Amino acid sequence: MDNPHEKQNGGVLETAAVDRLCECVMKKIEQIEIVRLRVRAAVCGALSVLALIALIPVIVDLLGEASRSGFYDFASLIASDGSYVAGHWHAALLSIADSLPVAAAIFVIALFVIALSSVRRFIAYRSALDIHLHHLRA
To answer: What is the pTM of this model?
Structure first.
């Protein structure tokens, strides 16, 4: 009763004051949510750009490793002499598996998954941010 901001009518706060209070609290929550979404969208966007940039040297390394290991030679053998490979498929399959640059392929796949996941999350956070901004303006 000593608070000059509270207007009481028979011990019950006026609904206008309660509505204004709720509106201020909800607006503050929306503003905090917008900041959170902006930070997350920025981090995911930066991570996706870095992962895509990092894919370039890793793919070049994968192609170099495939060339040095003889993977292209086995692949050209399959393409040029399919009947020989069909007759000796077990040996051809083991030779290809042995020449495959596994470590470089794992790095390419891992970076591709990171980039794809980051782009997906960036789009989700950006969409949620647009919805919150539209809700705040309305």
So the answer is: 0.70
